[in-house]
Amino acid sequence: MGAAPASRDVTSYGMGLAAPLALFFLLFFVAPLLQLFWLSLHNDTAGLHWGLGQYLHFLTDPFSLGVLGSTLLLGAEVTAVCLVLGFPIAWLYQRVGPKLQTVIILIVLLPLLTSVVVRTFAWIVILGRQGIINATLQSLGVIDTPLKLLYTQFGVVIALAQVQMPLMTLPLITALGRIDPNLDDASCSLGAGSWRTFFRIVLPLSLPGVIAGCTLTYAAAITAFITQSLVGGGQMLFMPMYLYQQASTLQNWPFAAAISIIFLLAVLAVVSVFTTLGRLSRGYGGA
Amino acid sequence: MAEAQGGRSLVVDAVTHRYPSGALAVENINLDIKGGEIIALLGPSGCGKTTLLRIIAGFIAQTQGRIIIGDDIVDALPPNKRAVGIVFQNYALFPHLSISENVAYGLAARGVDKAARQREAQRLLELVQLPTMAERLPRQLSGGQQQRVALARALAIKPSILLLDEPFAALDKNLRLDMQIEVKRLQRVSGITTLIVTHDQEEALSMADRVAVLSHGKLEQFGSPSDVYDRPQTLFVNTFVGSTNRMPGIVVSADRTAAKVRLDAGAEIIARPAAGTLTEGGRVTVCIRPEHLQFVGDETGFAGVVGMSLPLGATVVHEVTTADGSGVKISEARIGETRALESGAAVRLAPLAPSLANAFPATL
Lengths: 287, 364
Ligand SMILES: Nc1ncnc2c1ncn2[C@@H]1O[C@H](COP(=O)(O)OP(=O)(O)OP(=O)(O)O)[C@@H](O)[C@H]1O
Ligand SMILES: [Mg+2]
Description:
By secondary structure, chain A is mostly helical. Chain A is built from 14 helices and no strands.
């Protein structure tokens, strides 16, 4: 491409301009992380013995592994729900007039305009024993005794899905918007019905957006401390709360630090799977 | 070749389309196209060409009128049931599918099995002279090659009508000529009724059996290239197709086949009334193409002063200022030694023949 001289110009600005951000990261991200790692290498709370004892403890403890597993599973479930509900919204967005587009964007963004705490309490009101769902079902005579919705996996997944929905929908809207609408028409004129067009053309071409949305939603869902603990309650324990208990309540800082590092690595592993998938599908997006 | 199936006829019957926004894009268009014809839809930007094409393909449901393909009224059929092949201006190849998958896409939708599909795709790629590109992705092809693939993909479903929306607009001049010849060759081979949308008049005149000229959503003229060029029915057609000199004047006397017009430039000439009899004493615009003017030595014709002379290869164009101050262009074939016309030289001009000057009632 003829863009070569232009891009050389850009690089000639040097890395200096990135220095403030680099410094910020160094001070407030890398340094605490190193400190965390250093802390996790203590075998006791007093910091007298060094070693990998905390990691060994976590990795051999079925309870801890269970918490890690259920947290990763929770992320997968929330991501799946967001994808299944978010895709049609994004698809619709590209096919309605500008007025309805504004309405859809507003609905998608609305959750971001209220605090997570407020939204989570709203879910408690909706899902509780005397909450909106149970009250409605009972008055309709569908059920006799209230369903247990709050403090269940189901409740946490639904609440988290609503809270994280914008993170899925926005990348999807962008990805679908980048698909040439003529491709739809071309597919149709070649004799393909709507379903074939969707699965052969629209879905593969929106893959970069799907992967971006999934990565964001997943990362946000498994670390969503407030929603997880308020809707999940005492019985459901996920990594952020587990970590908090170890650090704050039990004052077991080295173990909490090890949990953080392990959690971080687990999240990184999942996210890198997504990004690898993203790189494989990059061929689709452009062109 | 196997394609030859005799294209089906296409009738556009009193089609009007108004977009929901209120824009009247197409107004009462009637086209009667025979099977196997190549038709060009010619018109300036925004005149409704794409809209008409999309109505025929079934992407837009027209507000009024009917589309009839062969013996069937197809208005109720969705695009995927119309068997209309369409090549988009930007080609609209599927970027994530290989060239052969692109070409085979329509066959897959029809449930043709994989081996047969690949064989047919290969055969079509050979037809468009790209047999070695089957495994590439669209973006690894040049614009002209993508164009051929889009054509092969549209032909794969053996459409009864082929629609091309500004198919050559993005190609440079040489490639455009190659592709025009190529498309015409493929069309002759397959006999598919073909509609080409273009705003390039040379393309329309050179490729089409008949040309439909549109302006502001209305059909101005539908006729053979020579009809449109030599016997334009409206002032718009005369000025849009080819270049022309517009000379105002007053009708001295007129009947159905000829009118004597006194030009403001100062001469009486005989012109052809292009659209019905002209009223005596009425103002008219006479259109004479630069190549239909000649220098005359006697006192006939109108006087003028040569401004600039532009040698354009095979022809030389002289700009002449007439007595009423308007500019007139005259082009001369460059035969042997062309006489050099000096700027400022006084000359007299006249049309080559009365039938080559078209008179239209002046619109005020
Ligand atoms: N989706 C639409 N909604 C409203 N008006 C439209 C729409 N598409 C086209 N128009 C209007 O209809 C008219 C005809 O448009 P059309 O695209 O058919 O023109 P065209 O002849 O293909 O022009 P071009 O040569 O620039 O492609 C234009 O005035 C345009 O503004
Ligand atoms: Mg157009």
